[in-house]
Design brief:
single chain; about 120 residues
């Protein structure tokens, strides 16, 4: 996750901890709502992603929120103190990172196969 979090767009003035939590929440959302195989390939390309997802879901109702879709995702991210522009900036950074790692076709399948995801990027 460090490589992803250190990107300038990811920080968006909120620091590494918020960026990492944001990425973890988005990845958890993708895991619960997106096309399983494609999302797992993406997660496998991000060192530390599995642990970050697990940490962001332990002891919270995140799993329950993720079952409610993209509106719950937005609510969770706004709860971190992020505005819409910051959420979109961080999401775009994640999508670009994934695009570079897994390719345009697979990233397109993730975006197309995940309800509401197109609104983030």
């Amino acid at each position: 996750m460090d490589e992803l979090v250190e990107q300038p767009a990811a920080k968006a003035g909120n620091g590494d901890a918020v960026a990492e939590e944001t990425f973890s929440i988005i990845l958890g959302f993708l895991r619960s709502q997106g096309p399983t195989d494609e999302v797992q390939v993406s997660i496998d390309q991000i060192p530390g992603a599995e642990a970050a997802i697990a940490a962001s879901t332990s002891g919270t109702s995140l799993a329950r929120l993720m079952d409610r879709g993209s509106m719950a995702l937005g609510t969770r991210l706004v709860g971190l103190g992020l505005g819409i522009a910051e959420i979109q900036s961080i999401a775009r950074q994640l999508f670009k990172f994934d695009h570079d790692k897994i390719g345009a076709d697979q990233m397109g399948e993730i975006i197309a196969g995940t309800p509401g995801l197109g609104r983030l990027g």
